[in-house]
Amino acid sequence: MVTPIRVAITGAAGQIGYALLPRIANGDMFGPDQPVVLQMLELPIDAAQDALRGVAMELDDCAFPLLHDMVLTSDPNVAFKDANWCLLVGSKPRGPGMERGDLLRENGPIFEAQGKAVNDHAASDVRVAVVGNPCNTNALIAMNWAKDVPNERFSAMTRLDQNRAQAQLAAKAGVHSTAVKNALIWGNHSATQVPDFVNCTIDGRSAADVIGDEAWLTGEFFQTVQQRGAAIIKARGKSSAASAASALIDHVRDLTTPTPNGRWNSVCVPSDGSYDVPEGLISSFPVRADGKGGYEIVQGLELTPFLKEKLAASAAELAHERDEVKALLPS
Ligand code: NAI
């Protein structure tokens, strides 16, 4: 039998977890021939552990052929034991009146503990994807505390933003979303994120040329992608979960399968200084994967002065977030 992949998921009984776990167990993330063990972490409180048990009962009831085993725990050291992938979805939500800085500092200790647990207990080939917000800086904290794990094994998710940008451009151009290729997000997964409309193509031509409406591209398009999460909360009364889970499936597949020639995907990875994003910050870039665990940041894309200015602002926000949590990083 193929050795199962061990996948740790934090916040497993939350909204995204509920939409994500059946899809992983169904083979959507690692393929139809790859068995999985789901190692699910929830808070050590009765309500969360009860909910987790309920989720596990439902997974049992799906009788997924690829689901080899499940681990239910409130201990990160158990959840991450021998894990090949750690999907860090759970985080402390923003409460009423809470500033972004407060949120960063509240989440810091969670991602410190989880980074250490990844370091000490995960498999030697572990890779970590952070979804829990503020995901870039949470990933930065976990990465810094996982001292023995190479930095490039850490990523954070802007694939949902990429998918949103792709859908918006397709709708505006009146084409199916598959006609839009290389949709791309730069910078932070926040309201400063930068959806690229120049290097993205529609039926093979720059989206900027096909749409030919600069005011829409720099105005409504930008705002719709940046504010889509808030629009979904307003409409649904809850934040995006199915689309976030689906994007995480895409994110992991993007990093584990070879990217087709001429293509890229948006992944938040540690900056090597590319595109003037300060080295070490976890920022969204165009990324190509080799399918063997390696990836590269695509070089040489041209940005318009407008996009450059927006990326510089988003990178400055990331640097500011790093400064806000400086006391929580190892010295
Ligand atoms: P949710 O509140 O429904 O679920 C979060 C779960 O995490 C809860 O069950 C909670 O008990 C658990 N949790 C909290 N702290 C934990 C810890 N220290 N260890 C283990 N479990 C913990 O939230 P939802 O909708 O599932 O979203 C999860 C996160 O994903 C949020 O931070 C959200 O902002 C973020 N998100 C990120 C997106 C992205 O594109 N990067 C898109 C959508 C959501």
UniProtKB/TrEMBL annotation:
Keyword DNA damage: no
Record-level Gene Ontology MF annotations: L-malate dehydrogenase (NAD+) activity
Entry annotation: catalytic residues: 189
EC numbers: 1.1.1.37
Binding site for substrate: 94, 100, 133, 164
GO BP annotation list: malate metabolic process; tricarboxylic acid cycle
Catalyzed reactions per annotation: (S)-malate + NAD(+) = oxaloacetate + NADH + H(+)
Keywords: NAD, Oxidoreductase, Tricarboxylic acid cycle
Listed CDD domains: MDH_chloroplast-like
Summary of the function given for this chain in its UniProt record: Catalyzes the reversible oxidation of malate to oxaloacetate.
PANTHER family found in the cross-reference section: MALATE DEHYDROGENASE
NCBIfam families referenced in this protein's UniProt entry, alphabetically: MalateDH-SF1, PRK05442.1
Name used for this protein in its record: Malate dehydrogenase
